[in-house]
Amino acid sequence: MTATARLTLLSVIVAVAALLLVFELLRRRRLREKYAVIWVFIAVATLVVAIFPHLLDFVATAIGIRTPSNLLFFGSLLVLFAVSLQLSREVGLLEEQTRRLAEETGALRLRVEALEQSVRSSELATPRVDP
Q: pTM of this prediction?
């Protein structure tokens, strides 16, 4: 088996394993659908490039990149940037939601304490009448 054939086989195995992992995480509800889409896309693209390596040569030549591996690295960089940007956006939204929930919890705690104080005050002010 040549080195190219071994690399193709390894790439196919990794891509299929990635697809299986994504579907298993979805099945166990450990991964949300909106994040699974990007990982399925990446795994399928890896599978296509592994099965048809000349496609990478064609695309690289078409857009003016001399070495197909440079196109692969550039594409990987773009994907990592997009995922990082998306996760940063999600973290920002979650921080805002956490802050808002903490403020609401504090306000509700103050209201409960005021109501408890009001109930205690009214119990002390109301004389008991024993039958």
A: 0.71
DSSP per residue, 76-125: HHHHHHHHHHHHHHHHHHHHHHHHHHHHHHHHHHHHHHHHHHHHHHHHHH
Question: Among all chains, which residue has been given the structure tokens 């001399």?
Answer: 66
82-88: long-range pairs with CB below 8 Å, 24+ = 82/38, 83/38, 86/38
State pLDDT tens for residues 5-23.
898 899 899 999 999 999 9
Collapsing DSSP to helix, strand or coil, 131 comes out as coil
What pLDDT band is residue 125 in, cutting at 50, 70 and 90? confident
